[in-house]
Amino acid sequence: MMKTYKIAVIGQGYVGLPLSLEFANHYPVLGFDINVQRVDQLNAGHDITLEADIEKLNNGLKKYNETNGTIGYRATSQLSDIAVSNVYIVTVPTPIDKYNAPDLNPLISASKMLGGIIKKGDIVIYESTVFPGCTEEECVPVLEKFSGLKYNEDFFVGYSPERINPGDKVNTLTSVKKVTSGSTEEIAEEVDNLYKKIITAGTHKASSLKVAEASKAIENAQRDVNISFVNELALIFDRIGIDTNDVLEAAGTKYNFLKYRPGLVGGHCISVDPYYLAHKAEQLGYHPDVILSGRRVNDSIAKFIASKVVKLLIAKGGIIKDSETLILGVTFKENCPDVRNTKVVDIYTELKDYGVNVDIYDPWASKDEVKHEYGINILDTLIEGKKYDSVIIAVSHNEFLQMDLDQLKKDNAVVFDTKACLDRNLVDARL
């Protein structure tokens, strides 16, 4: 007899919502989130993350209502609603704390919550980024304790790392191959077949939960280390007095040169996941020099940008204290509203330490979210007629590429382009 799936996706953010909507084409899906406002918005057909296909969201909601919940999507904040499910997919955030150690609190809270409702035969699949071994060492004992059920006898676990790239409308959930795994051979096969239903690019069934967990951790650690290399080159070439991008273009003419670009490394993945891998390595008595040195370089870039702007101002005869700076962009990447772990805030903080007055303008970012996360008030709109001593292009939103910077600059102003996205004749320096 074919199994009838009822799926609950825990967390309705950048990862959980697109996943819910794809599964809702085939199964009844409840998207659970503790944020009641978020749930109300989704059930009204709105998505502030801009990650979901609004047509898919509304179709999913419509299907759920028309079929009385036998297929389609509905969001909920009520635990009792999802207790009828038999597959639970956890997509909660896994951030780091102020000491760069993994913060597993959201993951453990979700596991405690699910422990209170899972039944015999249920499968819990984790998608959140973790260190290798975390699912079995940290999550499974919590599920056992709060459910009273026995792992791999009464309930089962899968791990399938998320590969969502916020703002990317080309490499979407279904078009990127998905790694899957399960706590037994049979469950691994079942989890793999479940994801095959929605991932048109296909799946890769890993040999164990640990292998799947490790694959996610090294995907982003590899990018982090490669970016740290070109960031270090930018620091060196600044001292030499040559343009980093000119050097990269010249070197890029060789067939096997990897074309990474320098820049701020923020967001919820590349700047966070390497610390999870490093945490596990240090638990086992190994100090991961390459991974952590890459993190140190990337975390130093915001400070370099701020000090470079100050030096350029001084070279032009400017007074630093109470000078006016405009930072264009605060999200962690272009054409995307995501402000999680953005390093633009570090530029802001460093300039404030120099005594500079700083405005931030970003048409993509939520003013309330930036205020809540970072305690910074950003501009809704540019202040009419206001001109600045320095302008920093921190994020290459499409809107900024069309701007007339002359309208924003005082005479002799400094323009710094962190993304090398503008005509070089319009800027004083770039990363």
Shape: globular
In the sheet with the most strands, the strands line up as 3-2-1-4-5-6
Q: Strand pairing plus helix content: what structural class?
A: alpha/beta
Indicate the percent of residues in helices.
25-40%
Beta content comes to 5-15%
Low-confidence stretches: none
What is the total tally of β strands?
A: 13
Please work out how many helical segments DSSP would assign.
Answer: 14
Radius of gyration from the alpha-carbon trace, in angstroms:
24 Å
**Average predicted local confidence, pLDDT:** 95
How far from one another are the termini?
Answer: 60 Å
Helices and strands, in N-to-C order?
Answer: EHEHHEHEHEHEEHEHHHHEHEHEHEE
What characterizes the major β-sheet?
A: 6 strands, parallel
Layout of helices and strands:
Layout: E1 7-10, H1 16-23, E2 28-32, H2 36-43, H3 54-66, E3 72-76, H4 79-82, E4 87-90, H5 105-115, E5 123-126, H6 134-147, E6 156-159, E7 178-180, H7 185-196, E8 203-205, H8 209-240, H9 244-251, H10 273-283, H11 289-315, E9 324-328, H12 344-353, E10 357-361, H13 367-374, E11 388-393, H14 398-401, E12 409-417, E13 429-430
Parallel strand pairs: 1-2, 1-4, 2-3, 4-5, 5-6, 7-8, 9-10, 9-11, 11-12, 12-13
Helix pairs in contact: 5-6, 8-10, 8-11, 11-12
Report on the architecture of this protein.
This protein is an alpha/beta fold and 431 residues long. It contains 14 helices and 13 strands. The strands form three sheets. A six-stranded parallel beta sheet has the order 3-2-1-4-5-6, sandwiched between helices. Helix 12 (344-353) links the parallel strand 9 and strand 10. Helix 5 (105-115) runs parallel beside helix 6, helix 8 packs parallel to helix 11 and helix 11 crosses helix 12. The chain is globular. The termini are far apart. The relative contact order is 0.08. The mean pLDDT is 95.
